[in-house]
């Protein structure tokens, strides 16, 4: 059964990888793992849209990205592609959800956000940030404490080819699974999932 919602973002933004069609493909893969009435976060939001798929599953969703703190403009094919305009657009589209307390837009770097949250808070975290090994490994290491024992860490752009720009994501996932701190639940069509292995209290 497909989740019904209003998609309030352009279905084509600036590249195939962030189009509506690709976002729906990603969602259909992770949908069995994100539950309902969940507390979740999308870490690395870019121009938005994927949160539309996550929000129907959440009683609280955080959209986390540094946006203009990482520079005023996106490096895209669009001239003067303002990160400030992106934030304003996302705030306007989610005005009612923000006012109702169901959604929070957080302008912050991933590790800072994760470190600011209580342990065992999240049902899921979806990581789609820099894709660099060092960043992804640090995010996963912190995320293991922040998701519940029944929760899951999900993400995008896992590529097992060493020459790929996203190979760092694959490396970080594999190292975490091999450490015994998490179970590798799946890798499918560049999506991935890790479930924390927590010691009994």
Kindly list the characteristics that best describe this protein:
32% helix; Rossmann fold; 7 helices; single chain; alpha/beta; 201 residues
Would you write up a description of this structure?
- The chain is α/β, with parallel strands linked by helices and 201 residues long.
- It has a single domain, classed as Vaccinia Virus protein VP39 (Rossmann fold), CATH 3.40.50.
- The protein is built from 7 helices and 7 strands.
- It has helices at residues 20-30, 50-54, 83-93, 95-99, 110-116, 133-146, 167-178; strands spanning 38-43, 58-65, 103-107, 122-127, 147-155, 182-188, 191-196.
- It has a 7-stranded mixed beta sheet, sandwiched between helices.
- Strand 6 and strand 7 form a beta hairpin.
- Helix 5 (110-116) runs parallel beside helix 6.
- The longest helix is centred in the last third of the chain and has 14 residues, at 133-146.
| CATH topology title | Rossmann fold
User: Topology as H/E string?
Assistant: HEHEHHEHEHEHEE
- State the CATH architecture: 3-Layer(aba) Sandwich
* Helical run tally: 7
The geometry reads as globular
Count of β-strands: 7
* Level-1 CATH class name: Alpha Beta
Which secondary-structure class do the elements indicate? alpha/beta
Radius of gyration: 16 Å
Mind describing the biggest β-sheet? 7 strands, mixed
Poorly predicted regions: none
Q: Biggest sheet, strands in spatial order?
A: 3-2-1-4-5-7-6
């Amino acid at each position: 059964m497909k989740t019904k919602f209003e998609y309030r973002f352009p279905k084509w933004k600036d590249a195939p990888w962030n189009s509506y069609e690709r976002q729906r493909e990603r969602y259909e893969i992770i949908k069995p793992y994100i539950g309902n009435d969940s507390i979740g976060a999308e870490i690395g939001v870019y121009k938005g849209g994927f949160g539309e798929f996550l929000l129907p599953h959440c009683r609280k969703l955080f959209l986390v990205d540094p946006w203009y703190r990482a520079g005023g403009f996106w490096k895209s094919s669009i001239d003067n592609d303002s990160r400030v305009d992106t934030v304003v657009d996302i705030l306007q589209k989610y005005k009612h959800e923000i006012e109702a307390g169901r959604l929070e837009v957080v302008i912050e770097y991933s590790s800072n956000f994760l470190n600011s949250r209580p342990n065992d808070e999240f049902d899921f975290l979806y990581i789609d940030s820099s894709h660099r090994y060092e960043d992804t490994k640090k995010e996963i290491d912190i995320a293991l404490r922040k998701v519940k024992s029944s929760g899951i860490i999900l993400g995008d752009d896992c590529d097992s080819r060493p020459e790929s720009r996203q190979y760092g994501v694959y490396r970080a996932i594999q190292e975490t699974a091999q450490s015994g701190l998490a179970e590798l639940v799946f890798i499918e069509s560049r999506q991935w999932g890790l479930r924390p292995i927590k010691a009994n209290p």
